Amino acid sequence: MSRILGLPPSAHSRLAAVPTGNTYDKYGSSNPVVRRLMSGFEGTLERLFRQAAPRSVLDVGCGEGVLTYKWAEWLGEKPVVGVDLADPKLEAEWRTRRRENLEFRAIAPGELPFPDDSFDMVGAIEVLEHVPEPDRTLADMARVAARHLLVSVPREPIWRVLNVGRGAYLRDLGNTPGHINHWSKRAFVATVARHGEVIEARSPFPWTMLLVKVS
């Protein structure tokens, strides 16, 4: 997912070298352990998505658009929009994922370029751990959402412990490149609750995933 979506322009200029897209292709991995973990992640995500029953969706920090495309398939003719920072590699991926109800947009850093209540649901899946001002990003998502937010982040410190256990990112004590925010489940619920009512909190190992009703 996007590493720097939602930054003010001044902050973006300082972090321009940070990549967009996934550090590791967890959706396409053939590793049996990763596939088992992703099965739990994607199953929980689908249950919360269908509980929200959105009539339109904005996917913030959509990365390569893997989930965005799947959501568009689930919604049939209802509109789905994925947004991320301009990046030739991402845009090439978007061109391989086409549906009549699906649109991808490259947007500049800063506030989302949509009016209030533009989408029934706004999602940010594996995005908020990357943004320097997550409260600002969540507030903007809540502004654009008419009914729900759907968000997920790695659950800490479990995430870093697992990375260390597999010998990854040892110099950074298991911190995945680009992760600048670290939340336990309780801390993430408290953060997101400032922007709406958390109606479902799930923990597909090793993530935290929330469905939020916005006022």
SSE map:
Blueprint: H1 9-14, H2 32-52, E1 57-60, H3 66-75, E2 80-85, H4 88-95, E3 102-107, E4 119-125, H5 134-144, E5 145-154, H6 158-165, H7 185-192, E6 197-202, E7 207-213
Descriptive account of the structure:
It contains 7 helices and 7 strands; from the N terminus they run H-H-E-H-E-H-E-E-H-E-H-H-E-E. The chain is of the alpha/beta class. A 7-stranded mixed sheet has the order 3-2-1-4-5-7-6, with helices on both faces. The longest helix is centred in the first third of the chain and has 21 residues, at 32-52. The radius of gyration is 16 Å and the shape is globular. It starts with 8 loop residues before the first helix and ends with a strand.
Provide tags for this entry.
215 residues, alpha/beta, Rossmann fold, seven-stranded mixed β-sheet, 33% helix, 21% strand, globular
Distance between the termini: 27 Å
Here the CATH topology equals Rossmann fold
Order of helices and strands: HHEHEHEEHEHHEE
CA-based shape: globular
| Share of helical residues | 25-40%
For the record, the CATH architecture stands as 3-Layer(aba) Sandwich
Mean pLDDT metric: 89
CATH superfamily: Vaccinia Virus protein VP39
Number of domains: 1
Strand percentage: 15-25%
What is the overall number of helices?
7
Strand tally is 7
Largest sheet: 7 strands, mixed
Which stretches are poorly predicted, pLDDT < 50 over at least 5 residues? 6-19
Q: What structural category characterises the helix and strand content?
A: alpha/beta
Enumerate the strands of the largest sheet in spatial order, edge to edge or round the barrel.
3-2-1-4-5-7-6
CATH domain class: Alpha Beta
Oligomer: single chain
**Backbone CA Rg:** 16 Å
